[in-house]
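An instance follows:
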Amino acid sequence: LAPLTDSAFIPAKIASSVRPVFSESATTIADVARVLASRHTLIVLDNCEHLVAEVSEAVDVLLSLCPRVTILATSREPLNIAGEFVYRLPALSLADDAVQLFVQRAEAADPSIVFDEANLAAVATIVRRLDGIPLAIEIAAAQLPMVGLQALEAHLDGHFNIPALRRDLPARQQTTVATIRWSYDLLAPDERELLRSASIFSGGFTLAAAETVCESASLERSSVLPLLSSLVNKSLVQAERAGERVRYRLLDSVRSFGVQLLRESGDETNVARAHARWLATIGERLHLRYDVTPWEDLAWLMPEIDNIRSAIRWSLDAESQDDRGYAGHIIVGCSSVWERIGGLEEHRRWVEMALERIDEAQHPRVVARLLRDLIARAFYETGTLFAIERAVALNDRIDDPDDILDLHSGLISTYAVHGMFEDAERSAQRAAAVVAMKPELLTSVRYAVVLAHRSTLRKIQGRIDEARADLVAAEAIARACGDRYFVILHCWSRLCTIELVAGNLERALEIAEQMLASEHGPFELITEESLRIVGGLRLLLGDVDGAVEAVREILDLPRYDTMWFNSTCVYAATAAALRGHIAVAARLSGFVRAREDRTGFRPGLGRKSVDELLRTTLAEHPQQDLIASAGADGGRMTEDEALLETRAALDAASAH
């Protein structure tokens, strides 16, 4: 939890770390608990002290709702909740372990160092002075090649006697902070500046990021690598290799120390601005290269999620509208991160917050793109029509052909879902007009996007052959561009629905299962989409057991948005109704109906087919009073109650 500065991200951080695969889309700790309720797992929450009150609340909820979950928390103070067993970690044994650690780290820093009986006595004195604290020992040992044992001991004694050392810290923390301060004081001025500036990063950083963010009038870009290497050698920065990539990070204690120094130096705002500008530049570059950046090539961006969050938060809280604009570029350009980790709801929250805080007059293009992202995240809801009106007017004023193409591509299917076919046709024409002006787009993924959205319009209109033809053309373009992810998620999923509308249910099921078995099947978004299609099709084919199995798998997935939850409830209700369990089916049906009426949610064609099966099954049952009463009860259920009811419906359907 060390990178977190906002307790609101505790659920997302847990969700992104837990295995089997979870997601960052959890907005509350209750969302996390829903997924973990049936798991037997150990969760380690490391570095809780800066958020101890909020962590305590989160752990209390998890333990109460997840009976098979065990939590190991590391903190400088207890969480003080029921069921907590506190183990106070002792220092290393001064006679053996602490000396051995010091010797190992010193020899790693300088293999020529030789320890004998005489200097081991000095080592024992040093580790005793450091209270046997591993971090303090590692930092001190790393300095040995530069200062020698006698000078090391003398400097430590002098430094620990500084009266200004904070007296409100426990003794062990005073030791660690004093050791870091002492080590920091030994650094050259440019090393100190780099350490302070690097503390702005959350969750680690690359060399390229450090060169960009930490460069200043007094620190040249070319000097960052040697300085960073020096800090690694002195145990103030950790270097971690993952494949061919190397990431650097500061330990929590060192980073906290660096942040405090950065704040005291008066440079925090400038460094934070450089950090936000770095990610905003990446976001803008990704946005411009959308049609030539295959999904697989974005894997390098995934580890930056903590940096992305902290930069957005800083930018949106900034007083200057210039700084707030950075947040918009990051949110829009890095939207693929949330898609890849299953965090679409989090992305939507950032978009909505940015639209509230970024001035349209000063950042019209950024606001236009944020509106486009909002439409994409909420296109099943009638409320999105207001965002569409604003986005169309703003894009017309800006008159950028690329942005007009991206907006109207998505509006083709959005209008179609809401039955506004004339508007959908006009958007298709607007998109086609841009492509006609730039023929090179005909072989780009951006044109494949236009064709995919137009296939949705044709499908809803019942023009099945034209819908198929659009998808065939879109898939061919995406394959030629090397974007298999687009083919699987956006072409095959649409083809499933087309085959469903055409009455070819077995063929649709075959395609959905191919999605699951594909190389991209493990990605959360494709897994969820595939299982939802499979669950609906198996219900329509009369395979209740197969549908129940698919829906159970959906419940174990991390995603939690409106479409996901509504579909899961409806499918579980339908399975229960087909097996004669009318009351639970009616309650879930009432819950979904009330929920969708409140948001103006319009389900897709696949969901509508299952909806009709559920309505027919309930209508044919003789106990209509029971169904009406249960449906009314369902309309008053909370999401947590509906989730429990969904599991009950699946259990009932399985038991026959």
